[in-house]
Amino acid sequence: MTVTETVKETVKGALSPSDEPRKSEPMWTQYHSMNNGEAQEPIADWIYPLFIAARATREQMSEAKLPLAYRDSCAHLLIPLNRCRFEEYYMPWKCVDERHSYEKCQYVEFKKRVAKMDELRASKGGARSN
């Protein structure tokens, strides 16, 4: 038995049997609708967060052992990313689609926070809170 096979057996034992293998397609392509059994064109990158309704529960985040700082609205993307990283031995050229989806979600959340802050600042007549 090679070292790689031994490591794979060890990893397989660490994951629960209900874990599905990761999909090789980008996360956002999973959310486009089907038309008479034929897939439509994938939806645009900027609109995919609007279609994601699934959020990670507290139980899922604690099972995945996410640090408290990372338990946010993008945790549902971080859990499969971390699992992929573990399965692929943290090689930087692996899990690209998962990483991109997670970073895009983080960016969208940042833009929402900036827009909310601009809105609050505009309601105060441009006065800064700090």
UniProtKB/TrEMBL annotation:
Record flagged with keyword DNA damage: no
Biased composition (Basic and acidic residues): 1-11
Xref: Pfam families: NDUF_B7 (PF05676)
Coiled-coil ranges (or none): none
Annotated membrane topology: Peripheral membrane protein
Record keywords: Disulfide bond, Electron transport, Membrane, Mitochondrion, Mitochondrion inner membrane, Respiratory chain, Transport
One GO cellular component term noted in the UniProt record for this chain: mitochondrial inner membrane
Keyword Membrane on entry: yes
Xref: InterPro entries: NDUB7
Start and end residues of each stretch annotated as Disordered: 1-25
Subcellular location: Mitochondrion inner membrane; Mitochondrion intermembrane space
Family: Belongs to the complex I NDUFB7 subunit family.
PANTHER family in the cross-refs: NADH DEHYDROGENASE [UBIQUINONE] 1 BETA SUBCOMPLEX SUBUNIT 7, NADH:UBIQUINONE OXIDOREDUCTASE B18-LIKE SUBUNIT
Task performed by this protein: Accessory subunit of the mitochondrial membrane respiratory chain NADH dehydrogenase (Complex I), that is believed not to be involved in catalysis. Complex I functions in the transfer of electrons from NADH to the respiratory chain. The immediate electron acceptor for the enzyme is believed to be ubiquinone.
Protein name: NADH dehydrogenase [ubiquinone] 1 beta subcomplex subunit 7
